[in-house]
Structures are given as C-alpha cells and as structure tokens.
Amino acid sequence: MAYVRKDVSTLTRTERQRFVKAMLEVKRRGEYDEFVRTHIEYFVGDGEPGLRVAHMTPSFLPWHRRFLLELEHALRRVDSSVTLPYWDWTRHRTATSVPWTTDLLGGNGRRSDQQVTTGPFAYAAGHWTIKEGITDAKFLTRDLGRSRDPIKLPTQADVRWALNDPVYDVSPWNSTVRRGFRNKLEGWGIGHGSSSWHNHNRVHRWVGGAMLTGASVNDPVFWLHHAFLDLQWTRWQRRHREHRYLPARPPGPDNEQHRRIVARHERMPPWDVTPDEMENVGRIYRYA
After folding, report:
1. Cβ atoms within 10 A of the Cβ of 212, count?
2. Structure pTM?
3. Which CATH superfamily is domain 3-287 in?
4. SS3 state of residue 129
5. Most exposed: 70, 101, 159, 280, by fewest CB within 10 Å?
6. Contact call for residues 268 and 53 (beta carbons, < 8 A)
7. Torsions phi, psi of 236, nearest 5?
8. Cβ pair 86, 228 in contact under 8 A
C-alpha cells in the first residue's frame, strides 16, 4: 500500500518529533553525509563537460525523485511511520512560519555569520555537524529572505506558469530553454540577479546559506523543498496526461547534447533506473 507525504504544516506534534528523530539518526549513522556527497558529485552545469543528470537538464525531476526516495527509505528504516513532508512555500512564506520552528528545522541564521542557533539541527545541539561541504564551516547556515538584498518566495502564480506548459522540456535541453515545464519549474531565467531566478532556484536563494551551493543537502529543508517540487511534477502529469518526459530518444552524435543528457529510457547514475521508470510512483507514495 502506498504511504502518504503530507504538508509539513499539517504534521502532528508526534509526527514532527518522529521525523526529526529519524533525520538525526540517519545523520548519526553516517548515511546522511553520503547524500550530501552524491549531490555535490552530480552538481554539473551547462558549461562543464560530461553528463548532466541532476541539474540544468531534463532529468532534473526524475533524478531528484529517486534521490528523495533514497533518503525516505533511510528514514523509514529508522521509523517506518516516517515519510517526507513537503513545504508549500506559496503558502508559508515568512522566516517564522512552518517549517522554521524550534520543533522542526529551527530558524534563521544569526546576522554575524548566518549560523543557525535554534532547533534540533543547530550546531550547538550537538547532532548536526557539517562534514561534507563547500566551505570548512561545521555549522548549518541560513539567510532567510536574504537580509542584505531581500527577495520573495515564488507565488502560486509562478507555479501555475510552469504547470500550464503542456510540454515537458525542449531542445537544447539545458538552462537556456524558455519553454517547457521542467525549466520553468527548475527556474533558470534570462539575465542576472533575482529576476532571473524562478520557482526552485528562487527558493534556494531565499533560504540562502548552505542552500546556495552544491552541498545544499546539508540543510534538511532541501528535502521538504524538493518534495514540493515533486508534487508539482505529479500535478503536471495529471494535468497533461498525453505528455511525457522528453527527450524520448538520445540526441544524435552531431548534437551538442550528445551523451550530455539522459533520454527517457536511459539509465540515471548513480542508480540503475530510467526517467521512464520514475514517471509512475503511485504504488510507492501519494501526496495528501
């Protein structure tokens, strides 16, 4: 039977406690840092050589869907009642709303160094030391809302703009495309600065701190954010049933994206799974 992923704002007190306890145990076992290392390894951009499988690419959504499942399986090995909640940032939009509470993810970083000092994932609590990162900092950092140059979280209209596009993705299958659901949700835009960041990308920048780098997994909000994105893919699939993941076939040898992206039936590293196999996960989980 499929289990249920809930809006984090609807979790009971006990559900919050069990989720946090399972996250801390996965970290204590050393498994969590493996997730951080994986995300750093596959954080490959348009300008870098080789295969792009996790970002700036059609497989952004199925890759992260499998990534979330791997973490969720680890949590459920600790406590089978736990599932990944999602953070609806179109509704809970302030630095003091859910999930930024002391019984969940803790609050904002302090002004001097952005260090998170509240909640179970604060360095001072003794259970969340950063071991895999881009810097040498041992503590979790955040700058919710970006204090020096404030930005706002995406709105429901921003999400609808992505959901209304019936085409999954288009050539050249990277961060430069202006059509297609995938990049409208992933959020690479034209120009520079905050106006060029949409949906997924804008949320990473709104949270700031650790969420700005390839080591963004160090902030547990990463999973709640990506669960909400995964929900949007589910909604897009229901809305546009006749449309599927693209490209269906790999680009040919004369194409600049040859062997740089994953087609529908090609394997996504580091797992032996295809985007096609990740399109229907209704037997595994559903969203409340």
Report:
1. 16
2. 0.98
3. Di-copper center containing domain from catechol oxidase (1.10.1280.10)
4. coil
5. 280
6. yes
7. -60, -40
8. yes
